[in-house]
């Protein structure tokens, strides 16, 4: 993406506030203009525990907060905003499929709910409790696992969603987990909770 196209993309994305827990994303643009690269062969991907060939995530584990969830594929809604997982009793996280797959160079984005209406707590209800260094494991469709470690947890007002920080290009595989947070506002929440994670070397006993 050229610098001019990227700047125009960010302007468009930042102007749209997604209803639900995902925050604004790459809105009203074609998938091929989505931020994030999909280059392969990254040494960082190898350190994360899996080769960087594109393979969709199918399961997400975050032991520190008791998350062990299947992962859906999410795309763009009819209005051009990023989809969020459906409101169901058996809440699941969802991977924005126009972002890089976990293990590829760029920010892979996974969304989840903090609450799911009458069903109660969502899969990411404890996301804000994560701390730097906590481990995250993403199982891929090809059977591999990519491992990350939390580098930062941020709570931001939805009106100030850091689009470039979440979707902007980076030179290694990274992971973003996004949900709602902060005080309730009407039927939703005022803020977004965003977890940033980078590749982590495999540790003995991990699977």
What can you see in these coordinates?
The protein is built from three helices and eight strands. The protein has helices at 3-14, 43-47, 163-167, and strands at residues 57-62, 67-74, 93-96, 106-111, 135-140, 145-157, 173-185, 188-199. Helices cover 11% and strands 33% of the residues. With 207 residues, the protein is mostly beta strands. An eight-stranded mixed beta barrel has the order 1-2-3-4-7-8-6-5. It has a single domain, classed as Sortase, Chain: A, CATH 2.40.260. Mean pLDDT is 79; it is low at 1-19 and 22-47.
Can I get a quick summary?
The protein has helices at 3-14, 43-47, 163-167; strands at residues 57-62, 67-74, 93-96, 106-111, 135-140, 145-157, 173-185, 188-199. By secondary structure, it is mainly β. The chain has one domain (3-199): Sortase (Sortase, Chain: A), CATH 2.40.260.
Instruction: Label the structural class.
Output: mainly beta
Estimate nothing, just give the exact number of structural domains: 1
Parts with pLDDT < 50 across at least 5 consecutive residues: 1-19, 22-47
> β content, as a range?
25-35%
Shape: globular
Radius of gyration: 16 Å
- What fold name goes in the CATH topology slot? Sortase, Chain: A
Which CATH top level class fits?
Answer: Mainly Beta
- Termini separation: 36 Å
* Biggest sheet record: 8 strands, mixed, barrel
Helix tally?
A: 3
Number of strands: 8
What is the architecture at the second tier of CATH? Answer: Beta Barrel
Order of strands across the biggest sheet?
Answer: 1-2-3-4-7-8-6-5
């Amino acid at each position: 993406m050229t610098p001019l196209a990227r700047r125009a993309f960010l302007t468009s994305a930042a102007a749209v506030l997604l209803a639900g827990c995902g925050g604004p994303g790459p809105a009203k643009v074609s998938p091929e203009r989505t931020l994030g690269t999909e280059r392969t062969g990254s040494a960082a991907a190898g350190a994360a525990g899996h080769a960087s060939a594109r393979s969709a995530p199918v399961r997400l584990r975050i032991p520190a907060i008791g998350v062990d969830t299947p992962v859906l594929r999410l795309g763009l809604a009819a209005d051009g905003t990023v989809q969020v997982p459906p409101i169901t009793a058996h809440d699941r996280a969802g991977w924005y499929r126009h972002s890089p797959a976990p293990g590829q160079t760029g920010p892979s984005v996974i969304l989840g709910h903090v609450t799911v209406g009458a069903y109660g707590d969502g899969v990411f209800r404890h996301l804000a409790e994560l701390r730097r260094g906590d481990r995250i494991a993403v199982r891929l469709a090809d059977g591999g696992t990519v491992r990350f470690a939390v580098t930062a947890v941020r709570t931001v007002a939805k009106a100030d969603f850091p689009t470039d920080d979440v979707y902007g290009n980076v030179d290694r595989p990274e992971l973003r987990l996004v949900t709602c947070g902060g005080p309730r506002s009407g039927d939703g929440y005022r803020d977004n909770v965003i977890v940033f994670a980078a590749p982590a070397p495999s540790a003995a006993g991990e699977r």
